[in-house]
Amino acid sequence: MTQPLLAHQTEFGRMYSRTLSGVPEVPSITTVIAQQPADLTGWAGHMAAQAVINDPRLPTAVNAPGQLKTLARHASSAAERFRDDAAARGDRVHQYAEQVALRALGEPHDMSGARSALAEHNESAFADRFDEWWDLYEVRPLAAEVTVWNQSVGYAGTLDLVASIGGRTCLIDYKTKGTDRNGRVKTLDPKVVMQLVAGLKAEESLIDPEAGTWGPWAHADAAILMGVAVGETEVVAYQANPQVLPEYWRRFWSLRQAWDYGQQAERAGQALRPIAPPPSSTNQPVG
Asked: pLDDT value at position 270?
């Protein structure tokens, strides 16, 4: 997603300040969730192998060790390139979704500019499918890109959308997803439930970033927490199962404590230091 106004990239991950001129105080929701380990080595290896196989320089490099090393270096960063490209695409899709909401709210928007940015990258299908979903679900936005804060636990984040759908208030998080071999949008990671429940448990929402004005969070009683997978062939909406919300909130709370412990360990100083061998026994008197 795009960088919210009060968010800062720090050595400890993304953090939020209370005002535009303030210092970072608490981690973002996504930074907290990132404390949960994720083993991506298999995926990274697969991406590197695919990069080599699909490289048009491979046939001429087979018998040239120097060229093979060049291909290997390029392939080793395939996962990072894919990740960065996906993040940039996600930002463009999120930007379009935000402009759609702003237009519906009667606020200044640049919907045509956001759609043009997608078109420049041959990504117009994402906007087309999003528009279809928006109309089918009869989305009535209440607020877009809402920054929220929980002082008790110590975190902040930005929700993509608060909307009324079918007469019920929904907290919504968009995830731009690829398409599987059957032409269906790929499913969401269950971690999105942690993101949504953390938003639900907020205590304040931002009113004015420059003045640092916050007000009570008005949607702590939202009926539906919704993750929306936005793809080129379809958009699929998922409701977070109300029965699992307490467990996912406990998991988020635990990860927030893990983030704290990590900062304490960093501040404690050097974890390991060299130690000299003991005095040689040959130098000690005998008997």
From this structure: 83
Q: pLDDT grade, residue 218 (50/70/90)?
A: very high
Map tokens 């001129």 to a residue: 21
HSE of 215 in the Cβ direction (CA atoms, 13 Å)? 5
Strand segments (E) across 177-259: 204-208, 213-216, 224-230, 235-239
CA gap 134, 72 in Å, rounded: 44
3-class secondary structure, 5: coil
Q: How confident is the model over 172-187, as a mean pLDDT?
A: 95
Cα(223)–Cα(209) distance, integer angstroms: 28
Contacts 24+ apart (CB under 8 A), 241-248: 241/193, 244/193, 245/193, 245/197, 245/200, 248/193, 248/194, 248/197
- What residues have CB less than 8 Å from 121, skipping those under 6 apart? 89, 92
State yes or no: pLDDT of 90 exceeds 50.
Answer: yes
Q: Please, what is the average pLDDT of the chain?
A: 88
| pLDDT greater at residue 244 or residue 284 | 244
E-assigned strand segments in 11-86: 13-16, 26-27
Pairing of strands 140-150, 204-208: antiparallel
Given a contact cutoff of 8 angstroms between Cβ atoms, the answer to whether 157 and 28 are in contact is yes
End-to-end CA distance of the chain: 75
pLDDT at 260 over 60: yes
Q: Strand 213-216 vs strand 204-208: parallel, antiparallel, or unpaired? A: antiparallel
pLDDT tens for 23-46 read: 999 999 999 999 987 665 675 565
DSSP code at position 118: H
